[in-house]
Amino acid sequence: MTILQMILTVAAVILGLIFVLVVGKFFNVWLRARVANAPVSIPNLVAMWLRAVPNSLIVDNRITAIKAGITISSDQLEAHYLAGGNVSHVVLSLIAAEKAGIVLDFNRACAIDLACKGTTKTVIDAVRTSINPRVIDCPGPEIGRNGRIEAVARDGISLRVRARVTVRTNLDRFVGGATEETVIARVGEGIVTRIGSSASYKDVLENPDSISKVVLHKGVDVGTAFEIISIDIADVDVGENVGAALQAAQAETDKKIAQANAEVRRAAAVAVEQEMAARTQEMRAKVVEAEAQIPMAIAEAFRSGNLGIMDYQRYKNIQADTEMRRSIAGDNPDTQEKK
User: Fold this and answer.
1) Pair 325, 334: CB distance under 8 Å
2) By the 8 A CB rule, do 166 and 230 touch?
């Protein structure tokens, strides 16, 4: 044998060995797919292995889908796996939707699965909720007062309401739709609106179903990932008389305002009184000053000869007679001032 023949022989042996190893590695998976009428070629299995895709996972899920009557190619499953999706959840959700008569194609199932990535929910949960409606408590345990929504009617009486919302997943709006927190918030808003527009709390107690009608009429499920089937009022309790409490608080505030205004007027009156007292003392001082000038005027009259001794004595007698009459009549200015 020539050297070229030897090289070709060695290369053929190596290639044959590689082929045997490859066939031996993927033969079990290939045979399982072939027997299940979901064939996958050896080159595709090798390509999956080179792309670090678990071929057993892809093949087994494709077999499950084919057996359930759902046609899916291995390339579709591989693409969803490489996108970060859960292949098993997608296949199981497609089977559940098919058995329940719900229209759900592969692309939408993949979109829902990717939308659920990073959350506690899965595409299987979405399909199951679409098949079996779920009940949501409104408000949630962390919202409201003692697990109830409190609203005040127009007569001032508050009501505490607890509702139960039955929802079904809307698969067409699941991607990009609002979550159940939005549904709870909108239902709570509708309950508060209905109670607040009631003339009396008795109207709500007599017809609690009117709350459900008003909330459903508002279309609270628009733009959400759910379809509301029913809203049931589970419990209605009568709360406090908020109107009376507000009126009492307003009356107390008005009383304090009136007291403050009265205090302002009293202070003003006291200031005026003090001012008048000061003016009275000022006038008295002027009177005393004027009376003090009388003796000086008399002395001046004596010196100038305009007043004689008999005139002065007559003035003193008249003054003494006047004081005596005042004392008898009880109109003595000094006595009145002492009193």
Assistant:
1) no
2) yes
